[in-house]
Each structure stands twice: as C-alpha cells, then as structure tokens.
From TrEMBL:
One of its GO terms (cellular component) is trans-Golgi network. Belongs to the PHAF1 family. Residues 281-325 are annotated as: Disordered. This is Uncharacterized protein. The lineage of its organism: Eukaryota, Fungi, Dikarya, Ascomycota, Pezizomycotina.
Length: 514
C-alpha cells in the first residue's frame, strides 16, 4: 500500500510555477528532486508514448499530491502544471489559502466539510480579482454539466456549470456566482496571458526559465551556463550551443579537463571503472577500425564509454577481462566526467587518433599525440528516452549532426528515428565503401542487454503509452527492479567517429562521439 503524502503547502506563482516546481524545468531535475523526498512525494506515475517517446508529450502524475505535470517530448521541459485534487495538498496564493476552510473544519469532530475546490466567489473576490470572459465548453449529449474555463495571466480554473443554466446573454460573473456552478474541478499554471493563447503553442514556445530550478535568478558568472544543443561536426569536433554564453568548441584529443571545468563547471561525478566485455570482437583484427568486421564504432575503444553511466550506478561487473596491452599502462589514468545536469559524459584519457571528417570537409585525421597530458577523447550524449533502462540518469541532451559542407545543409537530429539518421549517414559515407557487401557488413547491429542489474529509477511507475493500448506497461510497486514496459535490450550501430545505441522503438538512447 502506498503511504499518504505528508501535507505540504504549495505556493502558487502564476506564469512561473508552484513552489519549487518551475515551468521550463527539465524532467530530469524535477524527478530527481521529487525522489529525494519520498515522504512528501511517495508515488510518481510516468506516462509516455511507447512508439514516439521523443516527439509526443510526457506526463508525470503525483497522485498522492493531486498534481499532474506535462512536459514536451523533444526537450523534456515542463510546460503545464495541473492541480486535479484540491483536498490532498494545501495551496496558497500570497498567504491566502486557495480553498477556504469552513469554520471548525480543522477539528475532525466537526461535520462541516471543506469544499473540494475553490469557489468562484473566493477566486474572484479574495484572490485574483476581475478578469476577461473565459470559455464555456458544452457537455456531451449524455451529460448535464458543461465546464467554464476562467483565465488569468498564467493561471486558469475549470468550473462545472449546469448546462440548462448557461446563456450567452447572461454575463459569466452572474452565472458562476449562482447555484448552477460548483467549486473549481481543476487549476492550471502555464506561460501566457490566457489559456486560449497558451494552448496554441503550449509545447513549442521557448520557456522563459532554465531547465534547472537551481539556475533561476543565477548569473552565468556564478553558475555554469546550460547547454541548449550539441552540434556534431565530424572529425572529432563538436560545438556546444549555450543558453547565454558563446558557443563552446570541443576538439577531441585536444580539449583538456581544465578546459571543461572552466567552461562547464566541475563534473557531477567522476567514474574510473571500465567495461571490456566487447574486447573479444577486436582480437586479431587490424588496427584500422574502418576495415574491421563490425560497424566502424563497435570496437572496445568506443564501446567502453557506453557503460560508464550504467556501471556508475550499479554494482561492480562480474566481467573483468584483461585490458589491451597497448593501453594497460595508461588505463588507470582514464576516467569519465559525468555531467548529469548537462546530459552527457566525457571520457578523459590519453590522446587518440581523430576520426575522419565528413566527405567534402577538410580532413582532421591525425596520429595520436605522444603527450602524456590527459584530454577529452569521447562525448556520450544521452537521450533520456522514457521507458529506457537509463531513463533519468542524465538530463536529455539534444544534438544535431551536420554532415554537409559548411554545416548549413539539413541536419540529422536527436528527435529523428535511427532509421532516418542511418539512411542519411549511409548516403554521406556511401562512396567510402568498396562495394555493397562491405557496406552491409559494416552496418551490422550488436545487441546490448541493459536489464541485468537493478534500475536506480525503479520507484517510478512507467505507464507506457499515453493512450490505452495493449502495450501499456504494468504497474510497479516502489522497489521493484524493472517496471513493466522498460526497454532493456538495445542495439549498437557505428559510423566513423560515432556510435549509436538504439532502442527497440527506433529511438536513439545514446550517441557516442569519438
């Protein structure tokens, strides 16, 4: 049985949020903070589209608190806060209770009951004051009550209204003040002057507030600026587009850890363990990975990065194969900088050969440096796909691959399916293969199991599709290791300088750039 939530008072902030829950926040930051207070938020229900988890909205419900949070799919940022049950939690606006208590209602022995929601008179007279006329929605044929949406800037209430009492000739204040109207059934907090305006671009309007509530009101001089997008330019080069600061250029095997800390802040964690379970596929193979028998990214030097964020949350692996002799001496110096709030990990190791540039670009391929200085050699860009094994270990990282000269042509983005991305990259690299047989051999996928081990996000109930469907995930009690609907097996596909981890629904869970 789920324990009832501790009663807390939520401060209403129109156009901004409710208490610490701020519009524009990432689903990663919201869930991370909710899970830190299980006594207040004992149950989290996550609903998402199983077939389109990136393009469709994601809904996070807090049934023990009476709240529902709606996020856009591509950026996973909070767009709408809804109060669906006013009786579970207390809601306050400028030191005034949203739901007016009846006299003596604090005494459990009294028969007087607290209304299920705020009345129109209380909202209009004591809290928010006059406003423009809202919208009346007539009921379906078999219902007797319609709904009236009363909007204020960044705030809206839904009142039930008896349909036989509604008339366009009577002003809304008279109708909502009469016995034909009951207490509000729900409340919404959004960005916009009215609900009519906000709903038209609810999921597409750029949010005013940053992804992390900790950054609200902070200057970039004191806190590291957040990353809006990462551009993959080929040839081991990336550009990090930031919210307020200039674009940061990363050159793998050149950018130092000191450069990263100066621009991105210190990492949230540092991880030093390696996973070599795929090393068998490289034994006896030539050093040139473009001519191996697996996809160009599927070698131990690329795949070891893919395990960092998983192993850093789980127990030590049972697999401990010997390290490659050529890297055994330097492996103890390698580590991962885990930037959970930025949405990526960075491998810090000895300089390595740079990957080839996209055809048509000036080649940036070079031999490994003999310098002993450690540098950034790989970036892992995490998709934070709902339903995936690694969900909510990182904030979602949005990226764009620009394979055309000048970077001005159509980009391949993190919102595309892997089939679309793969088709575009195959066309880019088509002329580099000897024949069709080599092309097919180089693009074979490799299955990776993510389900053996306990998921750190097992207390989140994954509900699968937003709409009812046969594939809807089963409910999971807190503490269950693998909730129904979690996709644990993935496939790995490589292209020069890139490794894609792909889910069964064709969404990219992680892109490694090396």
């Amino acid at each position: 049985m789920t324990e009832p939530a501790s009663k807390v008072a939520f401060q209403i902030q129109p156009e901004r949020g409710i208490s610490w829950i701020t519009l524009g926040s990432s689903i990663y930051s919201i869930i991370t903070r909710l899970k830190a207070s299980p006594q207040i938020y004992p149950k989290l229900d996550l609903s998402y589209s199983g077939s389109e988890p990136i393009t469709q909205p994601v809904i996070l419900s807090l049934p023990c608190n009476g709240l529902r949070l709606r996020f856009d799919g591509p950026d996973q940022r909070l767009r709408l806060i809804e109060v669906l049950d006013f009786s579970i939690s207390a809601f306050v606006y400028k030191n005034t209770d949203l739901v007016r208590r009846a006299k003596g209602s604090e005494d459990a022995s009294q028969d007087e009951a607290t209304p299920s929601g705020p009345t129109f008179r209380h909202v209009y007279s004591r809290l928010f004051g006059p406003t423009y006329a809202g919208e009346y929605n007539a009921p379906h044929a078999d219902l007797s009550e319609g709904t009236y949406v009363l909007s204020y800037p960044g705030l809206a209430f839904t009142f039930p209204v008896k349909h036989n009492a509604w008339s366009e000739k009577i002003d809304f204040v008279s109708i909502l003040s009469s016995n034909a109207t009951g207490p509000a059934k729900s409340m919404a907090i959004f960005s916009g002057s009215s609900w009519t305006e906000a709903r038209s671009n609810l999921y597409t309007k750029p949010p005013s507030y940053p992804r992390s509530p900790a950054l609200v009101g902070k200057a970039v001089e004191t806190v590291a600026d957040e990353i809006e997008e990462i551009r993959v330019l080929g040839g081991s080069r990336l550009e990090l587009v930031r919210r307020a600061s200039p674009v940061l250029t990363i050159s793998l095997s050149e950018t130092t850890p000191q450069d990263l800390v100066a621009e991105l802040g210190p990492p949230d964690a540092i991880y030093r363990k390696h996973d070599r379970r795929i090393a068998i596929h490289a034994k006896g193979k030539p050093a040139n990975r473009r001519r191996s028998s697996v996809s160009p990214g599927l070698d131990p030097h690329a795949l070891d990065t893919d395990q960092s964020s998983v192993q850093s949350y789980t127990e030590d692996s049972d697999f401990e194969p010997d390290l490659d002799e050529e890297r055994a001496d330097s492996s103890c110096d390698e580590c991962f900088y885990n930037y959970f709030v930025h949405g990526f990990d960075v491998l810090i190791s000895s300089p390595a050969s740079r990957s080839p540039a996209f055809p048509g670009f000036e080649s940036s391929e070079s031999s490994a440096s003999s310098s002993a200085q450690l540098v950034a050699t790989k970036f892992l860009l995490h998709g934070n796909v709902p339903g995936s094994f690694s969900f909510n270990r990182h904030r979602r990282s949005r990226w764009a691959i620009r394979p055309t000269a000048g970077g001005k042509g159509p980009a391949l983005t993190s919102e595309m399916t892997f089939s679309e991305i793969s088709s575009g990259l195959k066309e880019v690299w088509r002329d580099t293969y000897k024949d069709e047989s080599e092309e097919k051999q180089m693009q074979r996928g490799m299955v990776l199991n993510r389900g053996w081990g306990e998921s750190p996000e097992s207390s989140i109930e994954l509900l699968g599709d937003l709409e009812e469907s046969p594939t809807r995930g089963k409910a999971a009690e807190p503490g269950v290791a693998n909730a129904g609907g979690v996709m644990s097996n993935t496939e790995l596909f490589g292209f020069p300088g890139m490794l894609f981890e792909v889910l069964k629904n064709d969404a990219v869970s992680c892109l490694t750039v090396f």
